[in-house]
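[job 0412] stage=fold_complex status=start
inputs:
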Amino acid sequence: MRDDELMATLLEAFREEAKERLEALYSFTDALETGGHSLDRIDAAYREAHSLKGAARAVGLAEVVRVCQDLESFIGRLREGGGEASREVVEELYRFVGEIELGIYGPKMESRVLHNVTKRDRKEISEEKKARKEVVSPTPSPGKSISGPFYEPAETVRVNVQRLDVLLKRAEEFIPIKLAYSEYAGELKRLYWFVEDVRNRRGEDPDLSYIESILQKLSLRVESTSRQLDLLVEDLLDRAKNVLMQPFSVLFQGMGRMVRELAQELGREVVFTVDGEDIEIDRRILEELRDPVIHLLRNAVDHGIEDPAERIRFGKDRQGHVGVIIRREEARKISLIVKDDGKGISAKKVREKVVELGLTDQSSLGAMDEAQVLQFIFYPGFSTSSTVTELSGRGLGMSIVKEKIESVGGTVSVSSREGFGTEFLIELPVSLATFRGILVKDSGQRFILPTHSVDAVIRLGSSDKDVVIGRIRSVKHNGRVIPVQRLGVVLGLERASGRDSREPSVALVVNASGATAAFLVEEIVTEQEGLIKSLGPHLQGIPFVWAATVLGSGEVVPVLTPGDLIRFLQGRPVATEEVGVYDEETGTKKRKNVLVVEDSITSRTLLKNILEASGFGVVTAVDGLEALSMLENYEIDLVVSDVEMPRMNGIELTRRIRASEKMRNLPVILVTGLDSPEDRERGLEAGADAYIVKTDFRQTTLLDVIKRYV
Amino acid sequence: MQDEREIEILEKRALELARISQEDPRRETSIDAVAFVLGGREFALGLEYVREVRPFSGVTPLPAVPRFVMGIAAIRGEVISVVDVSELLGVTQPPLTADAGLIVLQDKGSAMTFALVVNGILGVVKIDPEELLTLSASYDYKESRIVQGVTASGMVFLDGRALLNEPSLKL
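[job 0412] stage=fold_complex status=done
writing structure:
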């Protein structure tokens, strides 16, 4: 199950849960309004707000988390004040709950409005509010209404983003027409040449001459119209794309807060700066950048910046610096730099890890310089962090960062000096460029592979000595041995056969996520330019195909995911992973069972789905007591538990497990919404093996951790 | 004389028709729906979740997907998944002919969208949900939320939203 698909399931569960909690909060406020308050009810409301906050955090709704936090504090103060609620307090409570509801379910009208416009609106609204609070007299000051128009240029108009998207899509539809037109112009020209040739051979013929002169005129006209169409379509596309540009400030809104809060949780001091956020980029690229940038910033704070005491010891400023610099490099290129002045990445450790994971052989590793070695951190499953209880596990995360950036046609690289800091350089196109791909045919079907992932095209002659390594057929390429397979076999269109004469001999050497493999195809048709079209909401997360493109002929061709092809050859699962222990005797895999202990249905669904998708058997319990009875009745291999739960919390559960003769060695991983360092320690003291903070946690981190213990 | 009688009759008819349409409760509760044929059975889908109906003009198959995903098609500059729901609806889809059509469904709430491939499009019909009959136990999909009921003429009325969010069609 992919992250976004999982997120959707999770959001669904969260919305259900939130509905109940919001209802409880509403009825609490209603009761308060009619004077029916009691400290018990206030406590109950406090718990509702707290639980809602935790659940919202699990699904990554930062804004809702923030409002819940405010609401929690507000109710806390209300309690301290003895629970006497004035009219203002009740109104404030309604406002809070309303805002949370809005944050979760969105406005009733499903329209997203261009952000820079909304931002201005929000500012206006908050100013209005302020004004309302400060000014007692309800008479509006005449000065304000006059000053208004000065801020709002008359040319601005609010437009629904979806409408603009439609405009761009329509403009894109002209591309195949344009291509077809230039094809017709070519055909017409060839026809004219042919007729000319016939006339020359047959001698003077008035009919042929007439046809020839008509054809000549027609072909010239069509050619010139085709050129005009070319220019117009290009211009139209450029302008349509331009309309969809948004400044980076949209992306970085709220990031400062995230960095600050994270630093606080970790007891670090961090100054966060963004430079160049006025620069504009295609909105669609901006959307894809969100996750990678959050990941890099989290990493910078979590793994980069040292504790204040440590920094002083190294002679650095007490405060760490995390900075983002956005620059326009060329007309169509933008660079985004994320850097910190923290401890940096140790190239030596990376080298050791590369050897440990067997990512490359010693000799080629020896030939690499530090800068090259560092790029291995983008390899799936790579992590230099020795503890697994980290907030933002590196490992798979960095490979996802790389994949996301590459999916919009960008590149990412890292440089670092140990002790001085780390810098990520992301280079991006200004707009989602027309995409270059290699059109191939195999097993009767046509596919496109992104050009940037194809290293070379090779021909496998019979003289080539294949080697078979661990049941995988391999060939030598540029001094390296790489796996090779027929594309149709990988895609399941063809049965794997031995080497027979019918097998094609042309192969594409494909490179993705740091690994290389070759794929045999019947035919390499052409390299060509096209527009990438998403497969839409229904086909998210299918293996092997990540998009489609429409050829000049109108034919729809799937664009393959190079990473999936390579992972398939490496024998890794493509869509879901199987986890289990190979049983020598029966020759089957024995499923590992995980007990998930969690009181929130949102988090429980999340964990259950992640684990089941990865091939684990999952048993659930809603609190520690139930968990203990489950442990008696089921054969459990690992426990994943929340900390805060009714009846028996996760820490007590861990203690009981550790104290039991039978379960002493059972791995326990705590997953929780609590963020302070003390709680981590409390968990580990009780005997937990690992601790993950569920602040926006990703399934990859969790799976990474779990796999270390089963 | 003949003309006058004719006019008289016509006026009378018009009056009757007007009365019927005023009294007809169907005007209040009935829903516009697209009627189509799939595997020899007639079905209908409320227009609320139908974005567009068009003739079927081929799909590009995808590798390694479940059988019900026929492939992808480009519709108005957008790539859309084409789904065969005959199995889900308990009918057998005969080979597609020139009559085959695509019904593009969209749920603006969940943003889910895909297209159904059907053997033929019958047109738009009016269906009164209150007059629907519940299904007899003989249908496989009796339990499903997808089927809202059967009209007196035997047309199976489907819930477009339930179909779009049907778990067994999720990938």
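[job 0412] summary: Residues 264 and 408 of chain A are 33 Å apart (CA to CA).
[job 0412] exit 0
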